[in-house]
UniProtKB/TrEMBL annotation:
Alphabetical list of Gene3D superfamilies matching this protein: 3.60.21.10
SUPFAM superfamilies listed in its UniProt record: Metallo-dependent phosphatases
Stretches assigned to the Calcineurin-like phosphoesterase domain: 18-181
Gene Ontology MF annotations: hydrolase activity
Coiled coil: none
Name the UniProt record assigns to this protein: Calcineurin-like phosphoesterase domain-containing protein
Any single Pfam family the record assigns to this protein: Metallophos
Annotated source species: Neobodo designis (Flagellated protozoan)
Length: 205
């Protein structure tokens, strides 16, 4: 939240100069032997799309050249009250489509319609789960990213699909990346990152 004091209150944000210091640290860290980096949800609190380009412009070219993995948080897509941690400053993006050019399952879908728009967020339903799910490989590292806001019975078939892909590709390491560390923080039942990790380990693949 201290990253952007305009939309989320931060008592000491100005004192610590969070925006400047964070981007400076990223530029130093990502200029070294780093293969990839990740943003694990609630990424910008950027309802007007102003802060995201400012952030990217502050990054050096070496930092921008490193692949970035993005995980959705509850403030990164249209929640409309579910979970209850929604605020008036949420991004209101449908999936990753608003400010990020992030390939979820787009490469597997029809090129003219890479996202699933059958769920209307204005009905207070969360957008389709596939818009918030991805599996990719960078070198020998595979990543599986997901939204904990969706229910277990919706997500488990997608996790099984990812496990079958892992079996085919045989990466050296697999990272399961999510936003919620505990069920009491607003995610769906059995959809915290820890719960999903334990469940995926037992799936065939």
């Amino acid at each position: 939240p201290c990253f952007n004091g305009d939309y989320v209150g931060c008592r000491h944000g100005g004192t610590f100069h969070v925006f400047d210091r964070l981007t400076q640290m990223l530029n130093v860290g990502l200029s070294r032997d780093v293969d990839t980096w990740a943003l694990l949800g609630d990424n910008f609190y950027d309802p007007h799309g102003v802060l995201s380009p400012q952030f990217m412009q502050a990054l050096s070219m070496p930092a921008k050249s490193k692949p970035m993995v993005v995980v959705p948080g509850n403030h990164d897509f249209w929640q409309h009250g579910s979970p209850h941690s929604r605020t008036g400053y949420d991004t209101y993006g449908n999936g990753y489509m608003q400010y990020w050019g992030t390939d979820t399952q787009a490469s597997l879908a029809n090129a003219s319609m890479p996202f699933d728009f059958r769920v209307d967020p204005s009905t207070k339903e969360i957008a389709a789960a596939g818009n918030f799910f991805s599996y990719n490989m960078i070198g020998s590292l595979a990543t599986i990213t997901f939204s904990g806001a969706h229910h277990k019975d919706v997500m488990d078939p997608l996790f099984q699909e990812a496990c079958e892909w892992v079996k085919r590709e045989q990466p050296s390491y697999v990272f399961v990346l999510g936003h919620w560390s505990g069920v009491d923080l607003g995610c769906a039942e059995k959809m915290s990152t820890r719960d999903v990790h334990e469940r995926i380990k037992k799936m065939p693949g």
